[in-house]
Every structure is written in structure tokens, then in C-alpha cells.
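REQUEST FORM: STRUCTURE PREDICTION
Request ID: SP-0412
Submitted by: Lab K.M.
Chain count: 1
Length (residues): 219
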Amino acid sequence: MRTVVFDLDGTLADTSADLLAAANACFRDLGHGDMLTPADTLTAFHGGRAMLRLGFSRLGAVSEAMIDAQYPRLLLAYADGIDTHTRLYPGAIAAVEVLRGRGFATAICTNKPEGLAETLVGRLGIRSLFDALIGADTLPTRKPDVAPYAASVERAGGALARSMLVGDTDTDRKTARAAGVPCALVTFGPEGRDIARLEPDALLDHFDDLPDLAERLVR
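STATUS: Completed
RESULT:
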């Protein structure tokens, strides 16, 4: 079965505001106030540790021990407000529904911890649209290692050679290359059309274009 695999943060949904709020909760608890701003959206999509590293660097001192100490607190804060500001990108639901109507399997492969990813897609009301979900801790490795991507395709009932990845970062591009499959990167994420520098197989300007694009890229 043909399969389209989606990244979650920055691809299906703009989660940046809730991610930044979770990191800032850590810095407020330490008595520093908010160290991150909406201008740090790109860092937010690189994960909790990246946000903590940036915030501590602005305080003039950063170490992995400091990041390790705050990371569990960040996850708790994020879980508490996981869908406060998060919104699906326009056309995401309709595109997935059209793909499924055309016989595609659909899956999510994300570097968000599986439990948080399941919670988020459940609250967004889209879990039933995906045949599989693989998170950062589902397997021993995460993207750009090929294993999580391959597992998402397999669990969705698809075949690796007849699949593609839709994402928004270099991590997604590297994952697709490792798997030997086409990759479309969205231009409505934090990098805009600058993402073209990664030379994906296609750029996706709006989800309305995805079903026909998938028909062309996945044979």
C-alpha cells in the first residue's frame, strides 16, 4: 500500500507557542523570567533541549547538566499546556482525508515523545486519520535514523519503497534520504521558502497540493 508519513511539529501543526511557553516556565521557576520569544520559533521546532540551551546561553552560562536537570520540568509544563495555542495548518485535515480516500495509508513519525504526541493528536481530534504513530522514544533511535520511519510505514500497513515523507526540517530530509524515499518539505513552517536550500524532492506551499503531489511521487 502507498503511504504518506508526516512529521508533526511544524508540519501538521504549529506547536511553537506551547513549546516556547514550556521552556519559559522552566526559566521562570529558576527566577529568570521568560528567556525565549516568538522569534525563537525555529529553535522550538528543534526540541526541548535546543530551547533550554538557547535560554541558558542568553544567561551567559550553559551546560548539559543544566539542560538535563530542566528537561523533565519542561516536559511536565508542556504536557499541562500542550494544546493551548497549537493549531493545525490550513488544509491539513482535508489533505489527509483525500489521501486516505485515494487508497493511501497515513502515519506520523515525530521526534516528540510518543506519549505527548498521542495526547496532542488526540486533543486535536485527528488520531483516527493516521494508521500509525511513532515517537522519539517508541524505538531505541529517532529520526534521522531510518528505523522510526520504516516502522511507521510498516505499522501503517505500507511498503517502504512506496512511501514518502512530509516534513519541515533537515532532520526530515536526512531521514528520507536514509530511507531512499521522496521527501516534500513544507514552506509554511518557520523557515518559509528558505527550506528550499535543502533541495527536497518537492516543496509544499499548501496542503491542498499534497494529494496530487503524492500521486506523482509515490508509485
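NOTES: The chain has a mean pLDDT of 97.
Reviewed by: T.R.
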